[in-house]
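Record format v2
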Amino acid sequence: MKIGFIQFAPILGDVQATIRKIDGLIDQSKITDILVLPELCNSGYNFNSFEEAWETSEEIENSIFINYLKSKCKQLNLYIVSGFNERDNKALYNSAILIGPKGYIGKYRKLHLFMNEKDYFKPGNIGLPVFDIGLCKIGMLVCFDWIFPEVWRILALKGAEIICHPSNLILPGLAQKAVPIHALINRVYIVTANRIGSEGDLSFTGLSTIATPMGNILFQASQIKEETVIKDIDITMARDKIITKRNDLFSDRRPEEYLLLIEKDVKG
Amino acid sequence: MKIGFIQFAPILGDVQATIRKIDGLIDQSKITDILVLPELCNSGYNFNSFEEAWETSEEIENSIFINYLKSKCKQLNLYIVSGFNERDNKALYNSAILIGPKGYIGKYRKLHLFMNEKDYFKPGNIGLPVFDIGLCKIGMLVCFDWIFPEVWRILALKGAEIICHPSNLILPGLAQKAVPIHALINRVYIVTANRIGSEGDLSFTGLSTIATPMGNILFQASQIKEETVIKDIDITMARDKIITKRNDLFSDRRPEEYLLLIEKDVKG
């Protein structure tokens, strides 16, 4: 099967312009199965106020951006994971959504918020879902989640074979260095779709990455260019957790020794 | 402060020869605070039988190897972490021990056993202790533990600032690639002291590594040479878990979302 990403700069506050950009960057001549877009793709990132975040948000059921993605997925018979500024009642979430040829499938809400996101978004409250799309099982994380090894592990334990990771990374190349290791120690594919360009005082670092379950970088994009990249993968590599004939990545775990990971106040 | 390792090949079944080797490799002219030695340093690794593992094991209270390390730590005013084939009553453990200028301090017993180790050793049963030696707080892991992100995280959450990682790595360079990322995502120093050479059908991969809390490789040894390496570090880097003025590596965690990590049967 084939997975890929579009690395580009969504347009802050102009979903129609962003859609035109994506439409120009989806390579209709190259077939793919799964395509990952950056974080907060329908809105842009660097809001000046809650009002700006609110005005650029959309409800999943009533979203110009999602309607566009649905039509594209149907037309090209593909799955798209995208960052999404999600409005739900009075709250906003920094979400990732999964769309397929038959429409909207599901979402993840970012658990670990970065910097000013804490002013605009509520922290994720629907856990770490994994979606079986037939071809494979997909988990989603968003950007700053990368520094928490717990969430990669949980998605892998729940059966995720590909973790799609829409991002607007600004720290210089750190996540892009860590992602192949998260892939290695969890035996999953990871697609980090990062954005480029800048908004206000923030510059984004590109280097979108596809990492294999052996910890190799299948492809890493440039820091600054728009790029649509599609790669062949062997999904069976992510299903096999056997390390040696006597070692298995999961059954060798010692969960009874890991209790501290769930203690709320570790500095007690 | 200064930390380092000795990369060398312990002699299977000949603790006196191993001691002579270490004695020749400890650089007495270069002062260090902490020195890390490879896994199962008192015995060698690739046993042919439980009897061989048993005969080369020692009790902590009655060990030629530990007595040597104690005298060396006293003489040179340093701390040593070493892999140790530990006999306790009728059981063997693949342990790491911590010795200081005033003698024996404590131990860790490898939680995740690799390959035939399962025939010789009992899995660790004393958790993941952290030792405050005044200069800094030390945690220990052994070799194959490297692939389990849970244990690095737990040691960091317990306050470890330096994780000493005696190893006899055979997988080609994977742990050495992962160690800097474990250091980065837990903001700790890591010293992986790997061995070189071969025993029977096993070849060990060297590349002993000192990694910084920013995920950089401060030093990586060769694959095949004996090397004694001492490096200056800034331990305050491992004490600061602040990522941005609004993000902290530990207080941003969402432990209530991590429950799956401690479930015994994740494939339910």
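The helical segments of chain A are 15-25, 50-55, 64-76, 117-120, 149-157, 174-186.
Chain A has a mean pLDDT of 97.
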